[in-house]
Amino acid sequence: MKLPPPCCRLQALAAALGVCVTIGFTLQLLGGPFQRKAPAAPAARPPPPCRPRTHLVFLKTHKTGGSSIVNLLHRFGEAGGLRFALPHRYQFGYPAAFRAERVKGYRPGGPPFDIICHHMRFNLSEVPGGGGG
Predict the structure, then answer these.
(1) 8 Å CB contact between 122 and 132
(2) Checking phi first, is residue 29 left (phi over 0); if not, alpha (psi -120 to 50) or beta?
(3) What's the predicted TM-score (pTM) here?
(4) Does pLDDT of 130 surpass 70?
(5) How far is it, in rounded angstroms, from Cα 117 to Cα 54?
């Protein structure tokens, strides 16, 4: 059996490819049998509105995008009038464990802070609302 010359084989392959592409575009445009339809949502009551959390602790770490998150938290807190736990100095005595007494304006039984989001070594018993402070 003798094969046709290479140029005829390429022409036949190009024609077959053209037919397949044309069929594919036609199915896409006309919404052929493979088109997915979104399921109809059941008629239910709307979900309850979400409420933003206003009491949080963010453990900031080095080289993980933490400074960007802290920036967003500061904007969120400022817009909502929230109270931040800020250190007396540059940090909360890092690398020592966090102690509530290092928070500027902290006094036992005083008004609570809403957001803690600075470098610190976490210590649950000293975080206000965490079991101790």
Answers:
(1) no
(2) alpha
(3) 0.56
(4) no
(5) 13
